TrEMBL record:
It comes from Marinobacter halophilus. PROSITE patterns: PROKAR_NTER_METHYL. This is Type II secretory pathway, pseudopilin PulG. It comes from the Bacteria. The lineage of its organism: Bacteria, Pseudomonadati, Pseudomonadota, Gammaproteobacteria, Pseudomonadales. Signal peptide: none annotated. The keyword Secreted does not apply. InterPro entries: N_methyl_site, Pilin-like.
């Protein structure tokens, strides 16, 4: 008697071409929706950096004003914050000293100061610090503008 051997086709393991194409199509669709969300991260980071600098300027202005009112002034009538002499004008930080008072990094430099107005710019975003008497009435707080991006 002969025994018949059963031959079953070997089942190959792997993916078919159609399965691979479908995965690529699905990944393409997901990328099309996700890419616009990440495309302009540079602009948002730039704006966040300038907003951080603006917050530092606001805090430094308030701290220097408080030190001035508390009588912590040197012989020139200026305030010394962390070893840095901060020029005071009418009881508030002068535009020429606000970058030092806020300890802004070199990316902002000292701001460009013109007629008592310091402008801080990074990329397309900027804000201004207007010292007392420059464009504000005497005995009022300095004006720190909102961050604007073009």
């Amino acid at each position: 008697m002969t025994t018949m051997q059963k031959f079953s086709p070997k089942r190959e393991k792997g993916f078919t071409l159609i399965e691979l194409v479908m995965v690529i199509v699905i990944l393409g669709i997901l990328a099309a929706f996700a890419l616009p969300r990440f495309a302009d991260l540079g602009g948002e980071a730039e704006q966040a950096s300038v907003r951080g600098a603006q917050g530092a300027v606001k805090s430094a202005s308030a701290i220097a004003r408080s030190a001035f009112l508390a009588g912590q002034v040197n012989g020139d009538g200026n305030v010394v914050l962390e070893g840095e002499e901060i020029t005071i004008t009418d009881g508030y930080v002068a535009a020429s000293s606000i970058a030092a008072a806020a300890q802004l990094s070199s990316e902002f430099g000292n701001g460009s100061v013109t007629s008592g107005v310091a402008t801080f710019t990074q990329g397309s975003c900027s804000f201004t610090y207007t010292e007392v008497g420059a464009a504000t009435p005497a005995n009022t707080a300095p004006v720190i503008s909102d961050v604007t991006c073009s």
